[in-house]
Each structure stands twice: as structure tokens, then as C-alpha cells.
Design goal:
The protein is built from 13 helices and 20 strands. By secondary structure, it is of the alpha/beta class. It has one domain: Alpha-Beta Barrel (TIM Barrel), CATH 3.20.20.70.
Length: about 400
């Protein structure tokens, strides 16, 4: 793909910086925000952080390629948009609130992709959270620097999630071309265990007819357990409708026309603009993995898995998970006390299933106004800060 020397955005010309990967620097006012309140499965609330729009890890099925705005610059031109000085923006935002949930770095693009070696935004953002005693999780298919693990181990509720899709390195290179190899991914978990950091393994997504062999999955789970993982998260590949042609073309290229043909027969369930594998197939995999994790004394959860029932979108995690929280660990809401934040008592962070609002924030309990498609945003956190300051919250 030929890369432009400049990109015009909002009547302003931005020079394309070629190394370590083509990118532009854009000043940002984007805010910390939470999950959308409509079609949501994750029962824990998070402050979502994406310093990079676009990801050179190169997963052809990445749903971020279906997103509008800056993500289309990467999809069409191969250029990453870097949120310049985003750590300073986040610092100001954290100082403007008195209630915080665990930070999530990053829900969409990899925080340790090659561009991070130049700007270190992920490390700087982690500092902003840890310095205020706010927990943060990192989710990656890349090598996690020791520096990051040393920071995370300081904060009680911070943890890591590592995406490991398969044992087979040849297949891994097709699915995650620029990610860390399997040995390095397991080394992330090993080094986290040495520091007593809670580790989650994401077999996410599982690819039908490619990585769904039950015996191979069984061996993968056992190796993950032996490496120090106690919680497994899985999903089955789903395909945004506007990426259907692109994904099936890649499936055919890597795994053959017959596999692509089987995908066309399997992916017939349209749930809110996303093609999902038939529910009978998905339930079979979920049931096997849930029982396997039970036998291995590991906790288990699904990620973004739904079923249509009488035209109603129903989340499946509650049916198959054996964990209170989908991350396998309980992280309470944090409240400011002077210049630091501290966990609220009697809160295990399972907001979507919480009725009592033990944190003192009624909006968070049961995901209030779940029919709305808007995210919780910074103004909501400021509003909640006023609410908790009017109440006596126990620490």
C-alpha cells in the first residue's frame, strides 16, 4: 500500500511520519469514557483508553476496521493516528473527578504495538493511573515490557490480559502477523506470575474450522493454567457486515476456498449489524470450554457473545460464566481521598448485575438506562463525583 506524504484532516495538513510505522500526530480532546449502555455484555465498568487509532499488529478480522473516523484512515491508507500528549489530557481528566473505575488499555487497538516504542503513551498513561492509586488493566497480543509489569504490580487491582489464539505458530502468523510469537506471549504470563500479577488469557476469537479443535483447545487451556493463568475469556469470531467481503477473502486466501464456503453457511445470524456463527455451533463451543475450565478449577467467561430471542438481543455470558466478573477478578469502584483514590467497601465491581449500588452511584447499578446507546462519559464521572461527595462513602 502506497503511503501519502501528507493527510488533510479538517482543513489542516498533517505530515506522515514514516517510522516505526506510517503515522500522524493529532492533538486530541477525547475523553475517558465507559461502555456503551445498549448492547453490552461486560458486567464490569471501565474507563476506556485508546491512544492509537489504527493498529499495525495486522489482524485482518479486527472490528476496529469497521469503525468510522480515524480508523478509516488506517483501513484505507495504512496510517495510524496518534493522540499526541494523550497522557497529559488523561492526567487533567483524572484530576477533575473524585470517582474512578479501572482503566482499560486498550479495548480496541494494541497498547504495545510498534508505534508505542516511539511515543510510550501506554507507559505514560499507566503512570497517571498508578500514581493516583487507580487500577488499570492492559490487554495485548504483544510483548509486555518489564517496566510495565513493574508498574502494574504496585497497584493492588491492576492486571493483564494476554490474547493467545493458538499453539500453532504458522496459524498464529496468519491471524496475528505482527504480534508477539506464542513463546513471548506465554512469557508475558510467566513474568506476571513472578510479580504476583493476576493474568487473564483471551482465546479471543476462536476461528471455526481453524482453531476450534477441542483437543487442541484442551491442551492450550492446560498449558495456560500451568503458566499461571486462572481465568479464561473466549469468543467466536464475529464479522461486521461492512467487512464481510474482506474477511471471507482472507479466510479463503489463508485457509482455502472450502473453509470460506463453510463460513458463508455458518455465518447467517445478523445481530445488530454483525454476522455471528449459528447459535448451535457457538453454544457447543461455549459449553465445552465452560466445562473444561470447571474441571481445571479455572474461572471462565465469554466476551461480546449474544443470542437473538424473539428479536431481543440477550447476553450469553451470564449463562456460561462461572465467575462473578467477566475478567475473573473483582475490582471495586474507587473514590478520591485527598490526592489518591481508594476502593469502596463491599463493592466487587459487577455493575451490570448489582442491584444495591454499594458504591453509592445508582447509575452504575444494573447498567441504568441500558436501552440508551450512549457511553458513560467524563461528565457522568463528574456528576457521580458530586453525588458521592454528598454521601458518606466507606473506604
Amino acid at each position: 500500500m502506497a503511503v501519502d506524504n501528507y493527510i488533510n484532516l479538517r482543513n489542516k495538513k498533517y505530515p506522515v511520519i514514516p517510522k516505526p510505522v506510517p503515522h500522524i500526530l493529532v492533538s486530541t480532546k477525547k475523553e475517558l469514557h465507559g461502555w456503551a449502555k445498549g448492547k453490552r455484555e461486560c458486567n464490569v465498568e471501565r474507563m476506556l483508553i485508546n491512544p492509537y487509532n489504527g493498529c499495525s499488529i495486522g489482524c485482518f478480522y479486527c472490528y476496529s476496521l469497521s469503525y468510522p473516523g480515524y480508523f478509516q484512515i488506517f483501513r484505507n491508507k495504512g496510517i495510524i493516528v496518534v493522540a499526541e500528549n494523550f497522557d497529559k489530557v488523561i492526567s487533567e481528566q483524572l484530576d477533575s473527578i473524585d470517582v474512578a473505575t479501572c482503566g482499560y488499555l486498550s479495548p480496541i487497538t494494541d497498547p504495545f504495538q510498534p508505534i508505542n516504542s516511539k511515543y510510550k503513551l501506554s507507559e505514560k498513561i499507566i503512570d497517571e493511573f498508578i500514581n493516583r492509586n487507580i487500577p488499570i488493566q492492559v490487554t495485548t497480543k504483544s510483548h509486555i515490557p518489564n517496566e510495565v509489569l513493574d508498574k502494574i504490580k504496585i497497584q493492588k487491582h491492576s492486571f493483564i490480559q494476554v490474547s493467545i489464539l493458538t499453539f500453532k505458530e504458522r496459524v498464529r502468523k496468519m491471524l496475528v502477523p505482527k504480534g508477539a510469537n506464542t513463546d513471548k506471549l506465554f512469557d508475558n504470563i510467566k513474568r506476571a506470575r513472578e510479580r504476583n500479577i493476576f493474568s487473564v488469557a483471551r482465546i479471543d476469537p476462536i476461528f471455526p474450522y481453524v482453531t476450534d479443535d477441542f483437543l487442541i483447545l484442551k491442551n492450550l487451556v492446560k498449558k495456560l493454567k500451568d503458566s499461571g493463568v486462572s481465568h479464561i475469556v473466549i469468543s467466536i469470531l464475529d464479522i461486521p457486515l461492512n467487512m464481510k467481503y474482506q474477511v471471507l477473502k482472507k479466510i479463503s486466501f489463508y485457509f482455502g476456498r472450502k473453509t470460506a464456503y463453510n463460513y458463508k453457511k455458518l455465518y447467517v445470524e445478523n445481530i445488530d449489524g454483525w454476522l455471528n456463527a449459528k447459535i448451535d455451533y457457538r453454544r457447543k463451543v461455549f459449553d465445552y470450554m465452560a466445562n473444561l475450565c470447571d474441571k481445571e478449577n479455572m474461572s471462565f467467561a465469554l466476551c461480546m457473545e449474544y443470542e437473538l430471542r424473539k428479536d431481543k438481543i440477550c447476553r450469553l455470558n451470564k449463562e456460561f460464566s462461572n465467575s462473578i466478573n467477566c475478567d475473573g477478578t473483582s475490582i471495586p469502584v474507587y473514590i478520591r481521598k485527598k490526592d489518591k483514590f481508594f476502593p469502596t467497601c463491599d463493592c466487587n465491581g459487577n455493575c451490570l448485575d448489582c442491584k444495591e449500588a454499594k458504591c453509592g452511584i445508582p447509575d452504575l447499578a444494573m447498567g441504568r438506562k441500558r436501552d440508551s446507546k450512549k457511553n458513560w462519559n467524563l461528565n457522568d464521572y463528574k456528576r457521580w463525583s458530586k453525588q458521592i461527595n454528598q454521601r458518606k462513602i466507606k473506604f
